[in-house]
Amino acid sequence: MIELLKGFPDNVVAMTCKGRVTRADYDNVLVPVVEKALQSNDKVRLLYEIGTDFEGYDAGAAWEDFKVGMEHFSRWERIAVITDIEWIKHSIQLFSFVMPGTARVYPTADAAKARLWITQAA
Question: Of 1, 20, 82, 109, whose Cβ has the fewest other Cβ atoms within 10 Å?
Answer without folding.
Answer: 109
